[in-house]
Design a protein that fits this description.
Chain A: InterPro entries: AAA+_ATPase (IPR003593), ABC_transporter-like_ATP-bd (IPR003439), MacB-like_ATP-bd (IPR017911), P-loop_NTPase (IPR027417). Chain A: Belongs to the ABC transporter superfamily. Chain A: This is ABC transporter ATP-binding protein. The structure holds 2 protein chains of 2 kinds. In chain A, α3 runs parallel beside α5, α4 packs across α5 and α5 runs parallel beside α6. A 6-stranded mixed sheet of chain A has the order 6-7-8-3-9-10, sandwiched between helices. A 4-stranded antiparallel sheet of chain A has the order 2-1-4-5, covered by helices on one side. Chain A is about 35% helix and about 25% strand. In chain A, β1 and β2 form a beta hairpin. By secondary structure, chain A is an alpha/beta fold. Chain A has one domain: P-loop containing nucleotide triphosphate hydrolases (Rossmann fold). The longest helix of chain A is centred in the last third of the chain and has 17 residues. Chain B folds into 4 domains: about 190 residues, no CATH class; about 140 residues, no CATH class; about 190 residues, no CATH class; about 170 residues, no CATH class. Chain B has a 9-stranded mixed sheet. In chain B, α5 packs antiparallel against α6 and α13 runs antiparallel to α19. Classes of the chains: A alpha/beta, B alpha+beta. Chains A and B meet through α2 and α3 of A and α12, α13 and α20 of B.
Chain lengths: ~260, ~725
C-alpha cells in the first residue's frame, strides 16, 4: 500500500500573542490509498480545523501536510485553487449545490471548471449518475429533490474528477436516518468499487462505523485510533461507543 | 431604552444605510439646487431690461412635478432597506418585541438617516445651484460670480417635502413590518421575487399591442382609401400596402396561436410579434420620410398618428425583447455545448437566467425610463437651440410693428396706418431712434388678393428702396436692380432645393405693371426677420420702386432701432398702448402686432431656460432612478450571491475567475437595459430629427447639434461608469469572505 496523505506535527493556533487558542496541538498520521478514514471527536476537538487545513481552505501554524509527496503547506497561494480542483473532492453537510442550476448542470460545473472537453461532459455525467442512482433526477433543480438525493448529487460532483482524496464534512448531518444509511452505502461503494480514498469527519458513531479506520480527537490531539479489521459493522459500532464513553463525549449513546 | 437602541442601530448600521444615504442625498441635492432659482430671495444680476418673475413660477411648477418621480425612488430604497433588515427584525420579534415597536424603531432609524441626508444634500445643493446660476446668467448673456447663500424658503420647502415623504413612506413600512410573519422574515434572505412567467404583465401587454395593431390596420386601410394613387413610385406603394399587410400578418399570427394554443408555445407568439413590431417601426417611420420626399398628401394629424405607432411598437419591442432575453440565452445554451461546458459559463448562465426570470418587469420599466431620459437629454438642446435661433431671427429690431390681411375681404379695409402712436411714445420718453422705416408690402397681381388657400398663398413684394433701408438698418450691403428686373429674399427655414426649384420656375414674373425678369443675383439670404414675408410663404420679391407704385399694397410694417435698449417697463407700457389702439383682431379683419426685442428676449430666454432646466433635471432624475434601481437590484441579492460564490470557491475556482464572473454578470445586468434603451432612443431621436430637420439646419446647424449630442452622451457615459464601478466594488466586497 502506498501512502497518499501524510501529516507531520500539524499545529494550528488562533488569536494573538496574549490570548492563544490551540485548536490543533500536535497531530501526525497518514492515509493509505483506497482507505476510508473516519475522524471523530466532540465539538471543539479540532476536527473541522483539521479538515480545513487538509483541504487548503485554512493554513497551518506549524508542520507539514504531504499529498502524494507534494507539501501542500508550501504551495503558492495563487495556485491553491488549481491544486484543490485537481486533487480534492468535497462533500459538505449543507450540500453546497447551486439552486440556479439543475442537478446535471451542478455536476457538469465541476467538470467545466476543470476544463474537460465539452464533448465528454455528458457521457461522464450519465455514467456517474447511473452509479449513484440519480439518473432520473438529472434535469431537476436542487429545490425539487430530497436531501438524500441532493447529497448524492454532491458526492457525484465531488468524485467526477477522480480526485486523489475525497473530503467529507459531516455528510449525513442534515439527513434523516434512512437517507443517511443510503448515502453511507453509496460512499462505501465509492470507496470499494471506485477505489477512492475518503477522509470523513463526523461526530455520529453510526456514520463513523462505515469507515475502515477511525481517529478520535480530543482537545486538538489524537486520543485513540481504532481499526475495523475483520469485525462486523455492529461490533465496530460498539467499539466506537466504548471509546466515546471513555472520552466522555458519548455517554448518551450507552445509557 | 428604545431611543438608545435607535441611536446605536443607526450608528452601527451606517454602512448598511450607505446606499440609502447616498440616494437620498442625491435627491435632496437635485431638488434644492433646482428649486433655489425660484426662491424669492434669489436675485441674480440679469439687468434692468429683464424680468425674472415669469421664470420663477414656471420653474417651481416644473420642479415639483418632476420631483414626484423621486417618491418612487424613495419608496424603492426603503423597500431595499426593509428587505436587508428582515433577519434582524425576525430575531427581535422572536425575542418578544412587538412588531409595532420594531416598525417604529425602523422608522426612527430611517428618519435619522434621512435627516442626515437632508443636511448633506442641502450643502451639496448650495454648491450645485451655483452651476445653475451660471447657466442662467450665461443664458441672459451676463458675467458670472460665485455667491454662497442659503435661501430660507427653499430650505424650508426642501425639508418639508422630504420629511413629509419620509413620513408617508414610513407609515407604509411600519404597516408592512406589522403584517409580515416571522417565518417569512427569517427566510426573506433566500427568497426570490415571484416569477414573472406566472404574472399577467406580458399577456396584458400583448392584448394592448394587438388592439393597437387593429388601430394601425384601420388607419392603414383609410390612408389607402383616401390618399392612394396608382401613379406613386414603388417605395411609396410599399409604404401604403405594408401598413395594411403587416398589421394583418400580426393579427393573423395571434389568431393562429389562439387556434393552436396547445401546439404553439406562448413564447413563439411573442417571437412572431417581436419581429412584426420591428418591421412595423420601420414602415411607420417611413411615412413622414416619404411624405417629405415625395410631397404626399398626408396631413399633420396622420403623421402624428404614425409617431404614436412608432412609439407603441418600440415600447412593445422593449417588453418583448426583455421577456424573451432569458429564453434566448436558454436556447443558445442548449444549442452549443462547447460554450455551455466552457469554464464557469454554466454558473454564469444560471445566474443571468434566474435573475432575468424574476425581474423582467423591473428591467422593462427601467429600460423604458432610460429611453425617456436619453431622449430628454438630447431633445433639450435641440429645442432650446431651435428657440434661441428663432429668437435671433425674430428680434432683429428694437420695435417691430407688423400687420396681416388674412381676414380682410375689402380693399378699403387693408392696413394703411403709419402707427404714429409709437413715434409719440418714443418722443415722450426721450428714446432716440437710429433707424425708422415704415413700408408697404405689395401683391404683384391684384387678382391674388382673394386667394386665401394655405398651400397657394400669394408671395408679397417689397420696393427696392425699402429693402435697402432695412438692409442698412441691419448692417448689410445695399443692392441694386436694373429696370424690369426683380430679385428674391429668402427665410432661413427654406431649403436649398426648394429655393433652386422656385428660381428655375420663376425666371420671370407677371405683375400689374408689366413682366419682370430675374436679376443676375437671383436671391439674398441675410435674415431680415419673420414679419417681412406673407403668411405661409418663405420668399419675398424685391421689385423696382416705379413698379411698386402701381401695385396693391396689402401689408404695412414699421421697423425701428433705438440708440439704447428700451427698458422692460417701457416696453410693457407701449405694448399696452398699442394693443388698445390696434387690437390683434381689428373689426376690419386686419391683424396688427407689435414686438419689442426686450420683451421677446426676456420671455424667450425665460421659457427656454425653464424648458432646458426642466428637461435636464427630469432626465437626470430619471437616469439616477434607473441606475440606482439597477445597482440595488444586484446588491439586494448579495446574501444569495455570497453563498453561490463560496460554493464556486470550494470547487476550486480561482479568485481571478470569480472577479471575471462578477464583472460579466454586472455587464450583462447593466448592459442589457442600457443597450436596448440606446438602440430604441436612437430610433426615436432619428425620427424626431428627421421630422424637424429643416428647423435644425436653419436655427442650430447640424455640426453644433452633433457637438451637443456628443457632450450629452459623454456626461451620460460618466454617470453610468460611476454607478457601474461603485456597484462593482460593493458587490465584490459583499461576496468576498
Amino acid at each position: 500500500m502506498n501512502t497518499i496523505l501524510k501529516l507531520e506535527h500539524i499545529q494550528k493556533y488562533y488569536g494573538n500573542e496574549g490570548n492563544i487558542t490551540k485548536a490543533i496541538k500536535d497531530i501526525s498520521f497518514s492515509v493509505e490509498a483506497g482507505e476510508f478514514l473516519g475522524i471523530m471527536g466532540a465539538s471543539g476537538s479540532g476536527k473541522t480545523t483539521l479538515l480545513n487545513c487538509i483541504s487548503t481552505i485554512d493554513t497551518v501554524s506549524a508542520g507539514h501536510i504531504f499529498l502524494e509527496g507534494t507539501d501542500i503547506t508550501e504551495i503558492n497561494p495563487k495556485s491553491l485553487a488549481r491544486f484543490r480542483r485537481e486533487n480534492l473532492g468535497f462533500v459538505f453537510q449543507d450540500f453546497n449545490l447551486l439552486d440556479t442550476l439543475t442537478i446535471s448542470e451542478n455536476i457538469a460545473l465541476a467538470l467545466a471548471i476543470n476544463k474537460v472537453p465539452a464533448g465528454s461532459v455528458e457521457p461522464r455525467i450519465l455514467d456517474i449518475a447511473g452509479k449513484l442512482n440519480i439518473s432520473d433526477i438529472l434535469n431537476k433543480y436542487p429545490y425539487q429533490v430530497s436531501g438524500g438525493q441532493k447529497q448524492r448529487c454532491a458526492c457525484a460532483r465531488a468524485i467526477i474528477n477522480n480526485p486523489k482524496l475525497l473530503l467529507a464534512d459531516e455528510p449525513t448531518g442534515a439527513l434523516d436516518s434512512h437517507s443517511s444509511q443510503m448515502l453511507l452505502s453509496t460512499i462505501q461503494s465509492i470507496n470499494e468499487q471506485l477505489r477512492a480514498t475518503i477522509l470523513m469527519v463526523t461526530h455520529d458513531a453510526f456514520t463513523a462505523s462505515y469507515a475502515s479506520r477511525i481517529l478520535f480527537l480530543k482537545d486538538g490531539e489524537i486520543f485513540m485510533e481504532l481499526r475495523k479489521g475483520n469485525d462486523s459493522r455492529s461490533d465496530f459500532f460498539d467499539k466506537i461507543l466504548n471509546v466515546l464513553t471513555m472520552i466522555g463525549g458519548g455517554q448518551s449513546h450507552v445509557c | 431604552m428604545y431611543a438608545k437602541l435607535v441611536f446605536r442601530n443607526a450608528k452601527q448600521s451606517v454602512k448598511d444605510y450607505l446606499v440609502y444615504i447616498v440616494t437620498m442625498t442625491i435627491c435632496v441635492t437635485l431638488f434644492y439646487a433646482f428649486l433655489s432659482i425660484s426662491s424669492s430671495y434669489y436675485s441674480p444680476d440679469i439687468g434692468s431690461e429683464y424680468d425674472f418673475t415669469l421664470l420663477s413660477d414656471g420653474m417651481k411648477i416644473a420642479i415639483c412635478m418632476i420631483t414626484l418621480l423621486l417618491l418612487f425612488l424613495i419608496r424603492f430604497v426603503n423597500h431595499y432597506m426593509l428587505r436587508r433588515k428582515q433577519k434582524e427584525f425576525a430575531v427581535q420579534s422572536i425575542m418578544g418585541m412587538e412588531q409595532k415597536t420594531i416598525g417604529r424603531i425602523f422608522f426612527a432609524e430611517t428618519l435619522i438617516m434621512g435627516m442626515f441626508s437632508i443636511l448633506i444634500g442641502i450643502f451639496c445643493g448650495v454648491f450645485c445651484s451655483q452651476f445653475i446660476t451660471a447657466m442662467l446668467l450665461t443664458a441672459y448673456g451676463k458675467p458670472y460670480e460665485i455667491s454662497w447663500t442659503l435661501f430660507p424658503d427653499t430650505v424650508l420647502l426642501t425639508v418639508v417635502f422630504f420629511v413629509a415623504s419620509f413620513f408617508v413612506v414610513g407609515i407604509f413600512n411600519t404597516r408592512t413590518i406589522q403584517k409580515t410573519k416571522i417565518i417569512d422574515m427569517l427566510s426573506a434572505e433566500k427568497e426570490n421575487e415571484p416569477e414573472l412567467k406566472k404574472s399577467r404583465f406580458i399577456p396584458v401587454v400583448v392584448i394592448l399591442f394587438l388592439m393597437f395593431t387593429l388601430w394601425e390596420l384601420f388607419s392603414g386601410i383609410q390612408n389607402v382609401r383616401f390618399y392612394y394613387d396608382s401613379r406613386f413610385v414603388f417605395p411609396v406603394k410599399i409604404m401604403y400596402w405594408g401598413n395594411i399587410l403587416l398589421p394583418v400578418v400580426t393579427l393573423g399570427w395571434a389568431a393562429l396561436w389562439m387556434l393552436k394554443k396547445k401546439k404553439i408555445a406562448f413564447q413563439k407568439l411573442i417571437d412572431g410579434l417581436l419581429i412584426c413590431s420591428v418591421l412595423h417601426v420601420f414602415l411607420a417611420a417611413s411615412v413622414p420620410a416619404l411624405t417629405n420626399q415625395y410631397y404626399l398628401p398626408l396631413h399633420g394629424g396622420i403623421l402624428n398618428q404614425y409617431l404614436v405607432f412608432v412609439l407603441i411598437d418600440l415600447l412593445f419591442f422593449i417588453c418583448a425583447l426583455i421577456y424573451l432575453a432569458s429564453s434566448l440565452i436558454v436556447a443558445w445554451k442548449v444549442k452549443s455545448p462547447e460554450h455551455r461546458y466552457k469554464g464557469e459559463n454554466l454558473f454564469f448562465f444560471g445566474q443571468i437566467i434566474s435573475k432575468l426570470n424574476t425581474t423582467s418587469k423591473t428591467m422593462t420599466l427601467i429600460c423604458i425610463t432610460l429611453v425617456l431620459a436619453i431622449f430628454m437629454f438630447i431633445a433639450a438642446p435641440i429645442l432650446t437651440g431651435w428657440a434661441s435661433g428663432y429668437l435671433d431671427m425674430r428680434s432683429m429690431y428694437d420695435v417691430q410693428v407688423y400687420s396681416r390681411y388674412n381676414n380682410v375681404y375689402e380693399e378699403e379695409n387693408l392696413p394703411q396706418d403709419s402707427y404714429e402712436i409709437i413715434t409719440e411714445f418714443l418722443t415722450e420718453h426721450k428714446i432716440d431712434t437710429v433707424y425708422d422705416c415704415t413700408f408697404n408690402l405689395y401683391l404683384s397681381e391684384k387678382d391674388d388678393f382673394h386667394n386665401r388657400q394655405k398651400y397657394d398663398f400669394p408671395i408679397v413684394a417689397i420696393s427696392l428702396s425699402d429693402y435697402n433701408t432695412i438692409r442698412e438698418m441691419l448692417g448689410y450691403e445695399q443692392i441694386s436692380l436694373e429696370e424690369d428686373e426683380f430679385t428674391t429674399q429668402w427665410k432661413a427655414i427654406a431649403t436649398e432645393e426648394e429655393r433652386d426649384n422656385f428660381l428655375k420656375e420663376h425666371t420671370s414674373i407677371m405683375t400689374d405693371a408689366g413682366e419682370l425678369t430675374l436679376s443676375g443675383q437671383s436671391y439674398y439670404e441675410d435674415p431680415i426677420g419673420e414679419t417681412a414675408y406673407n403668411s405661409y410663404t418663405n420668399v419675398l420679391y424685391v421689385l423696382p420702386d416705379n413698379i411698386c407704385e402701381k401695385l396693391l399694397p396689402v401689408i404695412k410694417n414699421r421697423y425701428i432701432t433705438t440708440t439704447e435698449n428700451i427698458s422692460y417697463e417701457n416696453a410693457r407700457k407701449l405694448e399696452k398702448l398699442f394693443t388698445e389702439k390696434y387690437p390683434e383682431q381689428a373689426e376690419t379683419g386686419a391683424i396688427y402686432g407689435v414686438r419689442f426685442s426686450t420683451l421677446q428676449i426676456n420671455s424667450s430666454i425665460a421659457n427656454n431656460f425653464i424648458l432646458q432646466t426642466a428637461m435636464i433635471y427630469g432626465a437626470v432624475v430619471l437616469m439616477v432612478i434607473c441606475l440606482t434601481v439597477l445597482s440595488l437590484q444586484q446588491l439586494l441579492d448579495a446574501g444569495q450571491y455570497k453563498y453561490r460564490f463560496s460554493v464556486l470557491r470550494k470547487l476550486g475556482v480561482e479568485e481571478k475567475h470569480i472577479g471575471k464572473l462578477i464583472l460579466q454578470q454586472l455587464s450583462v445586468w447593466f448592459g442589457l437595459p442600457i443597450i436596448t434603451a440606446i438602440i430604441v432612443a436612437a430610433v426615436v431621436i432619428a425620427y424626431f430629427i428627421q421630422t424637424i430637420s429643416a428647423e435644425i439646419s436653419a436655427y442650430i446647424g447640424f455640426g453644433a447639434l452633433m457637438l451637443q449630442i456628443g457632450a450629452t452622451m459623454g456626461i451620460l457615459a460618466i454617470l453610468l461608469i460611476c454607478y457601474f464601478i461603485s456597484t462593482w466594488i460593493i458587490f465584490r466586497r459583499s461576496v468576498n469572505p
